[in-house]
């Protein structure tokens, strides 16, 4: 994928994300799209950027407690992140297989949940895939931990 194609996809994805009204802020920063999580208990950002082998999609936060609340709910539910992402993809009529999701702390001390989505067959397919995966990723995490603003008050 050329950098021009990546920019086209990110611009289209930016417009689509804005129209979806599921993020509190959306910013296209060079070769990366950043979307601020809406109603999360702490600041968290979804990011998508092109790499050599596909689109790197992530949710990151500097807040340890928020990361742990997501982890805790995953442990309690015994669901894998890939299974949860698959369910969200199916709900969006996207039958693509979910990639392996990694969880780590990066060099800037942010807690990151990340996967790499392979590029699509062409520009239209690539845009379809990135839209599906971004929306599915957001929907999956909105339901985990304290990402929806509801907290764990029950």
Provide a descriptive summary of the structure in words.
With 154 residues, the protein is of the alpha+beta class. It has one domain (3-142): Yope Regulator, Chain: A (2-Layer Sandwich). The chain has helices at 3-20, 64-77, 81-91, 123-142, and strands spanning 23-29, 32-37, 45-51, 54-61, 102-105, 111-117. The chain has a six-stranded antiparallel beta sheet. The termini are far apart. The mean pLDDT is 90.
Q: In total, how many beta strands?
A: 6
Oligomer: single chain
Relative strand content: 25-35%
Q: What is the approximate shape?
A: globular
Largest sheet report: 6 strands, antiparallel
SS-derived structural category: alpha+beta
Q: In the CATH scheme, what's the topology name?
A: Yope Regulator, Chain: A
Calculate the mean pLDDT score and round it. Answer: 90
List segments where confidence is low: pLDDT < 50 over at least 5 consecutive residues: none
Succession of helices and strands: HEEEEHHEEH
CATH-level-2 architecture: 2-Layer Sandwich
Give the CATH class.
Answer: Alpha Beta
Distance between the termini: 47 Å
Amount of helix: 40-55%
**Total DSSP helices:** 4
Number of domains: 1
């Amino acid at each position: 994928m050329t950098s021009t194609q990546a920019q086209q996809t990110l611009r289209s994805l930016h417009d689509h994300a804005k129209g979806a009204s599921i993020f509190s802020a959306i910013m296209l920063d060079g070769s990366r799209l950043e979307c601020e999580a809406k109603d999360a208990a702490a600041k968290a950002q979804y990011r998508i950027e092109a790499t050599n082998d596909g689109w790197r999609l992530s949710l990151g936060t500097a807040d340890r407690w928020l990361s742990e609340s997501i982890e805790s709910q995953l442990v309690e539910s015994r669901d894998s992140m890939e299974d949860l992402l698959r369910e969200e993809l199916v709900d969006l009529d996207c039958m693509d297989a979910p990639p392996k999701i990694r969880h780590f702390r990066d060099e800037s001390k942010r807690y990151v949940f990340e996967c790499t989505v392979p590029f699509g067959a062409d520009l239209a397919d690539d845009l379809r895939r990135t839209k599906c995966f971004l929306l599915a990723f957001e929907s999956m995490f909105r339901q985990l931990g304290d990402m929806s603003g509801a907290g764990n008050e029950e």
